[in-house]
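Many introductory courses stop at the sequence. We go one step further.
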Amino acid sequence: MTTIFKAAFIFIAPETNANSNSSWVITPEVHVKTLAVSSYQEACDSIDGLEKEGIKAIELCGGFGHQGVAEISKVVAGRIPIGVVRFDHHPCLDNVSGDTLFIAK
């Protein structure tokens, strides 16, 4: 019997909702849930649910700036490994960091 590895990829984009903007890619050995969130807080709020689903690794899109990654890492508190795609200035976010757009000022 093959062990299934479950991972999540979280990306951030305005006007999305984690409850309705998610999907799975299923392969024989790896299941990856792609989840769209509209804020750092929504990403943080999704962590417990992902853990309950059996997610064993989370990768964050380049839209999460350094502060966003830090916020999520704090919530995860070592329960799930976090990986990060890195863009200092994300081309899909008008060439700015997610920190510029998604950190409350």
